[in-house]
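Narrative of accomplishments. A recurring question from our advisory board has been how the design workflow behaves on a single, concrete structure rather than in aggregate. To address it, we present the structure tokens for one chain from the evaluation set, followed by the sequence designed for it. No filtering or post-editing was applied between the two.
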């Protein structure tokens, strides 16, 4: 059974940076597409960034591409989300997810239903 455990969330001020980590165990990490989603209060869980198993990376929006960086360390079975210039709209619970079934080298889904495993989430709160 694959387990994903996020860490690194917290309370920060607007303009600060934060790095989230997601450690995976129990599966073949290097063959999974991995992604970060976030869910703000009263809103649906939304795609933030993802990386295919071959290394293709996509971000939800151009603004995220300039502020967020997703990376993976296969040796540590860990995926990261480096976030900078945070603002109050980034306040949410951040989840990492693993797609263990698509298998396509360049495919990264933006849809929650296509991910097989989820972490428990880590809260990020940005005060203005």
């Amino acid at each position: 059974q694959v387990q994903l455990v996020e860490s690194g969330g917290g309370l920060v001020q607007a303009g600060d940076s934060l790095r989230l980590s997601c450690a995976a165990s129990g599966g073949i990490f290097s063959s999974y597409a991995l992604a970060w989603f976030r869910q703000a209060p009263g809103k649906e869980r939304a795609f933030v960034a993802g990386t295919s198993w071959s290394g293709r990376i996509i971000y939800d929006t151009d603004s995220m591409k300039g502020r967020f960086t997703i990376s993976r360390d296969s040796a540590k079975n860990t995926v990261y989300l480096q976030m900078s210039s945070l603002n109050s709209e980034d306040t949410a619970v951040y989840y990492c997810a693993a797609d263990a079934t698509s298998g396509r080298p360049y495919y990264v889904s933006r849809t929650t239903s296509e991910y097989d495993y989820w972490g428990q989430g880590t809260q990020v709160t940005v005060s203005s």
